[in-house]
Amino acid sequence: YFPSACPAPDNLPKSCTPHIAPRNHSAEVRRCGDMGDDFYVRYYVGHKGKFGHEFLEFEFRPDGKLRYANNSNYKNDTMIRKEVFVTPAVMNEVKRVIEESEVMKEDDGNWPEPDRIGRQELEVVIGNEHISFATTKIGSLLEVQQSKDAEGLKVFYYLVQDLKCLVFSLVSLHFKIQPIAR
């Protein structure tokens, strides 16, 4: 529901060369001279069920804008959309968390394919590296441990948990804090 701020993997500039050869939709890391020192993150998890298309999506854009959307049609709920600008310190912290997770070294080729249960996507651009993952919804660490690439999927799983926690905190704090009256 957010148009990607980064070129789609098939539409990257010609100066980009694959770092990890993609298999089907598997992880793609591209070295791109044209992307400079940009930083971008997008996460999506969702499924289509009896309540329609339900999903959670957020992105950190290079200009510091955090965009959040949550759509649940359960009991006729409406879509929640929030946008907020975060400080460079927050952007640096998100970047640090991603870099320390070493998710950029992973490959989703042996992860469970998206299916009727749902789909998760993580797209990250750090400088001249661009990675894009797609896998099924993961409900527990047990599902991670039973996959073909348990170690790689565990890196993804814990990073996503950390990012979701940070985003929920940022959005809820921003919209709950009342300005001080003078």
Written account of the structure:
The protein has helices at 88-101, 141-145, 150-176; strands at 17-18, 30-31, 39-49, 52-60, 65-71, 80-85, 119-126, 129-135. It is α+β, with helices and mostly antiparallel strands. The protein has one domain: Mago nashi (Mago nashi protein, 2-Layer Sandwich), CATH 3.30.1560.10. Strands 1-2-8-7-3-4-5-6 form an 8-stranded antiparallel sheet, with helices on one face. β3 (39-49) and β4 (52-60) form a beta hairpin. α1 packs antiparallel against α3 (150-176). The protein is globular.
In short:
This protein is an alpha+beta fold and 182 residues long.
Quote the beta fraction: 25-35%
Radius of gyration: 17 Å
Structural class: alpha+beta
Global morphology? globular
CATH superfamily placement = Mago nashi
β-strand number: 8
The overall pLDDT, averaged over residues, is 81
CATH fold-level topology: Mago nashi protein
The helix tally amounts to 3
Distance between the termini: 40 Å
CATH architecture: 2-Layer Sandwich
Count of all domains: 1
Largest sheet: 8 strands, antiparallel
The poorly predicted ranges are 1-36
SSE string, helix = H, strand = E? EEEEEEHEEHH
Brief descriptors of the model:
Mago_nashi, Mago nashi protein, globular, nucleus, Mago nashi-like protein, 3 helices, 8-stranded antiparallel β-sheet, Mago_nashi_sf, alpha+beta, single chain, 8 strands, 182 residues
Task: Annotate the secondary structure layout.
Elements: E1 17-18, E2 30-31, E3 39-49, E4 52-60, E5 65-71, E6 80-85, H1 88-101, E7 119-126, E8 129-135, H2 141-145, H3 150-176
Helix pairs in contact: 1-3
